[in-house]
Each structure stands twice: as structure tokens, then as C-alpha cells.
């Protein structure tokens, strides 16, 4: 298409040729100008409506935005209510965890006055009752922060309880509660008795387990072998250090199977019954020491639990009558 411009001021006519490309550029420019004008008018109109509050324009805006605002508000309310309900379930679980933690802390030997789960943050219900208002977003945020603090405190408390339980388990493993031989009987208990060599009253600082030569001798608890040597009085003896000033002694053995410095477990074979040293026959002389002071072994042996790897031993009283190992203290008293 050609457009011819004729004017008296022009010396000659001018011709402008318009092709499809120029028409497309012109149409695009016109459309862009119209869109920019509409957008500008829209922004100016609503800004003026917001500042001056023109009634007609304000009503139009309110009508357009009302449904969308209502939907957004309902969406927020539904989500806040669901989150509050979930928060209430979490708090109920925390309360059950608190009850369990209190029972476990008592089992571990932790005193209630040292710390109590009831004093930790995060307890209490947050789920709204029927007919009550839903929690606001700010209230929900505060509850979530309180729950987070409660979980952190409970994790710390559980770490303390776990450490205490492990310590208690270690302490129990180091107590000499297992009988050191699996067969035989107690021929002489702890306390004053007539010395078989001198005929005079003398203190017997341990318990004698009469058993055949070669009967295995087991560690009554785990520990470190403090000495494994020959002694003029005790003969072949083993002494095990269990820590915290607690040690056990196994004397008159015919054979030692451990050496000084060895680490032994509860129930591990350490020697064999014999009659070495100051002895009148094959037996095991067993002593328990606390900070170097001899203790009555029956106080420890009677605490052994059911299912011990060693069967209860037959115990002979002062008249030679067999009694159960649970009567060890009575037998010792009778021997005195």
C-alpha cells in the first residue's frame, strides 16, 4: 500500500510505501499504548478510591475482592484449627511421655526433687473445646514455641536418665553377686570360728566352698585382675579389682588361668579349686573387700537374681545339714 502526500509547501509529492511489517509494528505499538493507558487509569482510579474513598468505586472494589478475601479467611481459619488440634495431640503425647519418664527416672534411682517432668514447659491442652473459638495465628505460634522448648528439655532429661541407667547397669555388673563355683557346698562361713590349725577362735574373713580339685572357679563380677600369684597363706590366689574400692579374692586354687592385668567378665573362669597354701583340703576360700576391709560375702551372694548362670549351691550348716544358698547368712551365723 502506498500513501501520497501532496501540499503546496512541498516542491513535489511524497510517497510512503507501507508493507505488512510496518503495519504489524504499528498495530503492536498501538495495542501497547492502549494497555499502558488502561493499567495507568486502573491504578490511578483505585489509588484515588483508596485515598478519597469514592463511594461508587469503593463499592466496585469491595464487590470484586469480597469473595476472594472470604475464601482466604476461611482457608486460614481451617488450617489454624487443624494445626491447633494437632498441637493438642502433641501435648497429650508429651504428657504420656512425662509419665513414662517419671517412672523410668525412679527406676534409675534419680530423686524426684532433683528434677521433675511436671515442671517442664509444653504441658497442658491446646485443642479448643467444642464451641470455643479457634486459636489465633499468634497464639498458635506461641504454643509451638512452648512445645519446642518442652521437647528440648525432655531430650536433655532423657539423656540424664540414660546416663544414670548405664551407670547403674555398670555398677550392678561390678558387684560380686554370682557364686564363684558351680558345685560344692559352703563348709565354713564368715565370722569367728575355731581355727583348724591352732584350735583357737579366729576371724574367718571369707566363705569356704568345699568342692573337688579341678572344679572351675568363676569371677563373681567383672573387673581387672589386681594380682594372680602364690601366697604362703592363700596358696595360688587371684584378686580382682571391681572399682569403687570393691575387690574379691579367690584362694587355695590348684591352677590359675588368668594373669595380673587381665580384664575379666562376670562368670569367666579364672582358676580351679585346689588345696594350696594353708589349707586342710580342696576348697575355694572366697573373700569380698570394700576399701580393704573384709565384708560378709553372703550379703552379695544372696542378691544374685533368678536365672544366674550358676545354680544355687547346697549349704551345710554347723551340724552338716544341707540348706539352700538363700540360708547362707544363717549358716554363717551358726558357724560363729
Please give a structural write-up.
There is one protein chain. The chain has 336 residues and is α+β, with helices and mostly antiparallel strands. It has helices at residues 20-52, 55-107, 137-173, 298-301, 328-335, and strands at residues 2-5, 14-17, 185-188, 191-194, 201-204, 207-210, 216-218, 223-231, 235-243, 246-256, 263-264, 269-273, 283-290, 293-295, 314-316, 322-323. The protein has 3 domains: 2-49; 84-173, no CATH class; 185-335, Glucose Permease (Domain IIA). It has 5 helices and 16 strands. Strand 9 and strand 10 (246-256) form a beta hairpin. The chain is rod-shaped, with a radius of gyration of 46 Å. The termini are far apart. The model is unreliable at 125-132 and 305-336 (pLDDT under 50).
Keywords:
336 residues; alpha+beta; Glucose Permease (Domain IIA); 3 domains; two-stranded antiparallel ribbon; rod-shaped; disordered C terminus
Amino acid at each position: 500500500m502506498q500513501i501520497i502526500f501532496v501540499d503546496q509547501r512541498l516542491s513535489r509529492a511524497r510517497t510512503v510505501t507501507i508493507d505488512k511489517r510496518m503495519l504489524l509494528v504499528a498495530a503492536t505499538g498501538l495495542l501497547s499504548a492502549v494497555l499502558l493507558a488502561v493499567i495507568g487509569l486502573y491504578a490511578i482510579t483505585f489509588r484515588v478510591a483508596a485515598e478519597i474513598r469514592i463511594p461508587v468505586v469503593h463499592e466496585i472494589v469491595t464487590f470484586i475482592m469480597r469473595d476472594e478475601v472470604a475464601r482466604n479467611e476461611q482457608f486460614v481459619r481451617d488450617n489454624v484449627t487443624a494445626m491447633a488440634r494437632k498441637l493438642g495431640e502433641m501435648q497429650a503425647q508429651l504428657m504420656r511421655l512425662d509419665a513414662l519418664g517419671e517412672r523410668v527416672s525412679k527406676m534409675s534411682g534419680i530423686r524426684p526433687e532433683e528434677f521433675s517432668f511436671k515442671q517442664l514447659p509444653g504441658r497442658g491442652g491446646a485443642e479448643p473445646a467444642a464451641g470455643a473459638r479457634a486459636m489465633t495465628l499468634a497464639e498458635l505460634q506461641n504454643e509451638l514455641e512452648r512445645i519446642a522448648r518442652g521437647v528440648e528439655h525432655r531430650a536433655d532429661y532423657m539423656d540424664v536418665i540414660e546416663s544414670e541407667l548405664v551407670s547403674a547397669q555398670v555398677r550392678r555388673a561390678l558387684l560380686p553377686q554370682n557364686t564363684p563355683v558351680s558345685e560344692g557346698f559352703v563348709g565354713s562361713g564368715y565370722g569367728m570360728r575355731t581355727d583348724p590349725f591352732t584350735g583357737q577362735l579366729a576371724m574367718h574373713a571369707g566363705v569356704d566352698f568345699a568342692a573337688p580339685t579341678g572344679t572351675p572357679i568363676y569371677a563373681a563380677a567383672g573387673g581387672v585382675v589386681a594380682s594372680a600369684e602364690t601366697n604362703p597363706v592363700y596358696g595360688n590366689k587371684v584378686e580382682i579389682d571391681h572399682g569403687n574400692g570393691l575387690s574379691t579374692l579367690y584362694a587355695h586354687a590348684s591352677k590359675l588361668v588368668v594373669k595380673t592385668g587381665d580384664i575379666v567378665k562376670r562368670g569367666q573362669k579364672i582358676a580351679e579349686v585346689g588345696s594350696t597354701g594353708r589349707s586342710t583340703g580342696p576348697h575355694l576360700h572366697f573373700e569380698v573387700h570394700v576399701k580393704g576391709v573384709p565384708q560378709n560375702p553372703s550379703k552379695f551372694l544372696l542378691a544374685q537374681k533368678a536365672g544366674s548362670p550358676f545354680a544355687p549351691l547346697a549349704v551345710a550348716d554347723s551340724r552338716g545339714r544341707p540348706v539352700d544358698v538363700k540360708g547362707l547368712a544363717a549358716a554363717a551365723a551358726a558357724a560363729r
